[in-house]
Design a protein that fits this description.
The protein is α+β, with helices and mostly antiparallel strands. It has two domains: 182 residues, Gyrase A, domain 2; 69 residues, Aminomethyltransferase beta-barrel domains (Elongation Factor Tu (Ef-tu), domain 3, Beta Barrel), CATH 2.40.30.110. It has seven helices and 16 strands. Strands 11-14-13-12-15-16 form a six-stranded antiparallel barrel. It has a five-stranded mixed β-sheet with strand order 8-9-7-1-10, sandwiched between helices. The N terminus is likely disordered.
């Protein structure tokens, strides 16, 4: 299955995202509030990011790992008012609240599903000229965006204000769909747990090392991550490539006669194929092709 179809996005939409002139409606995303006297310390002891000093309006990309260090879920934790909000792409098979619930035990923690209460609008890059245009009653802004790569801003509003928020944001910025966001993500080389992670993958193997705090104390899977890093390098790595021919997600990646990996994400932007591929560590600097013979070359990350 092709990830993108022509009617799902236009290159103009992708360009608008790349210039901070567009936003995406993520109101369908999962939104789980973590509340209670122990909320922050409890969550910080489980997730890979360090959220101990997270202040209102700040957000951090994070992971929930298995005891063996494998990625179980990816999400963003944002400090919204006096509570922590977990934002997760619903295309991930395992909802974050169902994964976290077994760890509550006797802690003073409550997980509240707020999917029907909040709307979320994401600017992957810092929006140009947004100013107070989105200054809607009851809205909150958190940085960085849950779909950016350490940049951008998310605007959260009451779900009842959804249409009014879209109208206000659209005065100065283009509303684009999920196809444009996916094309922008792949062109930018940003990994996704939905597309680029398979069962058993470690964060360093799928480009998610940035979601793991290097100097943080104990968290679920911490010992396994540290052990893997002490070995010197991961078993495989995510590479960002372009191709001289159309690509398909799932295409085999080869180095010479050897199969060394798989295309995990693909998009067509400005008439070219751009992809992320998970390949064996030893093949990362070799000449790569697909099983059908398409040449893969390293992609230059957009400015």
């Amino acid at each position: 299955m092709r990830i993108l179809e022509p009617e799902m996005r236009t290159d103009t939409d992708v360009d608008a995202l790349s210039r901070g002139r567009a936003f995406v409606d993520l109101s369908r995303w999962r939104k789980v509030a973590v509340r209670g006297a122990d909320a922050r310390s409890w969550l910080n002891g489980l997730v890979s990011a360090d959220i101990g000093d997270l202040r209102p309006g700040e957000a951090r990309r994070s992971l929930l790992l298995s005891p063996t260090g494998a990625v179980r879920a990816e999400f963003t934790i944002a400090a919204v008012g006096d509570e922590l909000m977990v934002l997760q792409d619903p295309d991930q098979e395992r909802p974050v609240d169902s994964l976290l619930a077994p760890y509550v035990l006797s802690a003073d923690v409550r997980l509240a599903d707020r999917a029907d209460e909040l709307a979320v609008f994401a600017f992957p890059l810092e929006p140009a000229g947004l100013g107070e245009a989105a200054g809607l009653a009851g809205s909150e802004r958190t940085r960085p965006s849950c779909v950016g790569d350490g940049a951008g801003v998310d605007v959260l509003t009451p779900r009842s204000d959804h249409d009014r928020a879209v109208a206000a944001l659209s005065v100065s910025h283009r509303a684009v769909g999920p196809g444009a966001l996916e094309a922008w993500r792949v062109a930018a080389g940003i990994p996704s747990a939905t597309r680029d992670v398979s069962d058993g993958d470690l964060p360093d193997e799928v480009g998610l090392a940035g979601a793991v705090a290097g100097d943080k104390g104990c968290y679920l899977g911490q010992e396994a991550v540290a052990k893997a890093r002490n070995l010197g390098h991961p078993r495989r790595i995510l590479v960002h490539v372009t191709a001289d021919a159309p690509l398909m997600r799932g295409d085999e990646v080869r180095a010479g006669e050897s199969a060394v990996g798989t295309i995990t994400s693909v998009a067509e932007v400005d008439g070219r194929s751009v992809a992320l591929a998970r390949v064996q560590w030893g093949a990362r600097e070799r000449s790569l092709t697909t099983g059908s013979g398409a040449t893969l070359t390293p992609a230059r990350r957009p400015d």
